[in-house]
Amino acid sequence: MRVTLLQTDIEWADPEANMVAARRMMDQCDSHADLYVLPEMWATGFATDPESLEACRAGRPEAPLEWMKAAARQRNAAICGSLLYFDSQKRPHNRHYFVEPDGNIHHYDKRHLFIYGGEKSFVRGEKRCLADFRGVRFMLTTCYDLRFPVWMRNNCHYDVLVCVANWPENRQHVWDTLTKARAIENQCYVIGCNRTGHDKYCQYAGGSVVIDPKGYVVAEAKGRLAQAITADIDIDALQAFRKKFPVLPDADNFSLTDHLF
Q: Least C-beta-crowded within 10 Å: which of 37, 44, 98, 157?
């Protein structure tokens, strides 16, 4: 399976501009992918205070998701990334969507809110989400989740961990370390798609990356520029590695108070 990560420089609170930029980047890719991955809140930028993005609701708040559906259908590929979503009670969610070309949609609400940075107005997610697409099982996560390995514990539930992010430059070393750690401990591929550029809160250095189950970099963004990177996910090699070196069955058993699925 071929995956392409779209490391974008997000225009603040401007979904139309960000949709145009994402489409242009996809059009310029040298090869077709089965999955395109966008960063966290790729259509608006990430805000710890969602009311600061309230103006986006005055237009067509459903437009970015509709764009994802249309692009997935046109390219016969899945597209994932997170968006600001307001439910029927007008409560904000940081919702990670995985959209398949046939219109089937999986979604995951970010569980670990970045309280240190003020992300406390959002509704906290309570369930993990797996998306099974073209024979590959993806687990969806978002940014700060990457710090919490219990939530991502793999008991052979998934093959690829997808983390979309607005991860700041001043903690880039942490991003580089944790993406590798999550791949090694879960014997899985890790797709980490981060933004670049800056907003009124932070500076971002990108660092989008695909890591293999042994912790080696398969593909990574070069420098801070907005760019697309492409890699192949080799499921046969993953399964052979798990069979040859069966770490996951030796993991300690434990239970959580919250339901994982």
A: 157
Specify the amino acid at residue 74.
Q
Nearest to 148 by CA among 119, 128, 170: 128
Mean pLDDT of 176-205: 96
Classify the C-alpha dihedral 208-214-218-223 as positive or negative. positive
Tokens of 107: 């979604």
| Strand 78-86 relative to strand 196-198, pairing | unpaired
Question: Is 62 assigned a catalytic role?
Answer: no
Q: Which residue is it, tokens 């240190």?
A: 116
User: Would you tell me how many other CB atoms lie within 10 Å of the CB of residue 242?
Assistant: 17
pLDDT at 153: 94
Which residue of the set 69, 80, 110, 180 is catalytic? 110
Of these ranges, 34-38, 89-93, 122-126, the one predicted with the greatest mean pLDDT is: 34-38
Question: Taking the model in full, what pTM does it have?
Answer: 0.94
Q: Take residue 42 and report the two structure tokens written for it.
A: 């790729």
